[in-house]
Amino acid sequence: MSKKWLERTELLIKEKGTEKLQNANVMVVGLGGVGSFAAEFLARSGIGKMTIVDGDTVDITNINRQLPALHSTVGKTKAEIVAARLTDINPALELTVKTEFLNPENMGEILDSQNFDYVLDCIDSVSPKLSLIKESRRRKIKIISCMGAGGKMDASKIQVKDISKTYNCYLAKQVRKRLKRESNLQKGFKCVFSSELQREDSLKLTDGTNFKRSFYGTISYIPAAFGLFAAGEVINYLLKKGNSSNKPEED
After folding, report:
1. 9, 108, 150, 244: least buried by Cβ within 10 Å?
2. Is position 94 within any domain?
3. pTM
């Protein structure tokens, strides 16, 4: 297949950069408003190998913010919709599709299934998110974890920092507390978060299905921006990987 579609990318990162991305293997867990955009940005950068994981189907309430969500796709599997889109962007992409929810019981199995250069945690429920973080760290796999995008509207407040430096995010606070209590893990992996305070009047309680007890209202661009920041962090890491002039990152 012609690589003409990557011409603009190669002008920026040069042939060596495109080769690094082509040889990279990443996994995106969760294909909602954050993960669907992150996966697309990765595919459009020329990442050569990717695993996408999500057991959910499109609901009509997803249309305001999720890439696979259209009126024509309601009821269809998110992972399969995203997979078709990614391979249409790059037919040479080596794509593994998992149409399942990750839980503590199967987390290790999927992490051991391939040699991943980076994992993008785009899960919006606390328990599976914690399991993915802990199991990735246990295996020394690089991971970036996306925190709460709901209840926020100011994209300029989005940041990437170590988990220990997050603030004004209830999800990040829960993750920090439980990681410290359950595994004494207090720092050492990057997070995408927003320092903007959640709008409390947008909170809605749920029945607890799929580990989710509540959620905040969302606007179209904030989850997408979280996905952009996550993908950007991963791409820039992969481009710098192996450069002797760069200092090693903290694990």
Report:
1. 244
2. yes
3. 0.92
